[in-house]
Write a structure and sequence with these properties.
The chain has 189 residues and is α+β, with helices and mostly antiparallel strands. Helix content is 28%, strand content 12%.
Length: 189
């Protein structure tokens, strides 16, 4: 969420991002409401994944007032520290996700979570990675999700279609219109 004194160019950056073609803004104004999802997401990691060594919070010149930036597990990283300047500012999660691997100090194996993702039960690293270190890919089999993405012309739906095309090109056998679930993502750099 935007901290009142922490992002002096917020309105200017938002306007600039919305004028980029294709748009660098993939969400509406609701994206900037602070419903404290991050607070509860962090609490869920603390409770259900105490084995996590570091939590990198990637943000654009903003930090919640309540966040203890001195906590030994928390590292706040600014977009400019891993995303090339020509792509900034951006409010597009797909752009941001494309540069996660460039976060300074990030482990080879990591789990990416949006601020609205929550763990609801104890977890272990083996829930996310195979014994030989490959990340598990969790799919969403619900027909409503699959069908909805096949008829929409939105940045998110286009990203889904591009991902499926890439996976098919790489030889993955894809069943029907299955999509990646909206859950924590295991990944490697």
């Amino acid at each position: 969420a935007k901290r009142e004194s922490g992002w002096p160019d917020f309105e200017k950056d938002l306007k600039r991002a919305s004028e980029v073609k294709p748009p660098a803004l993939s969400h509406g104004a609701a994206l900037f409401n602070d419903n404290e999802e991050l607070r509860f997401s962090l609490r869920s990691v603390e409770k259900f994944a105490p084995w996590v060594r570091k939590i990198f919070i990637l943000t654009d010149e903003q930090t919640p007032d309540w966040l203890n930036e001195e906590h030994e597990k928390i590292v706040v990283v600014d977009h400019k520290d891993c995303i090339p300047a020509e792509y900034l500012p951006t409010f597009n999660s797909h752009v941001i996700e494309s540069y996660l691997h460039r976060i300074p100090g990030l482990a080879e194996h990591f789990i990416y979570m949006n601020d609205d993702f929550f763990l609801a039960a104890p977890s272990v690293p083996e829930d996310f990675f195979t014994p030989n270190g490959l990340p598990y890919l969790f799919m969403d089999w619900r027909y409503s999700r699959r069908f909805g993405y096949s008829i929409l012309d939105t940045p998110h739906a286009c990203s889904y279609a591009n991902t499926r095309a890439f996976m098919k090109k790489k030889g993955f056998c894809l069943i029907d219109e299955v999509i990646v679930g909206h859950i924590p993502y295991a990944a490697t750099k």
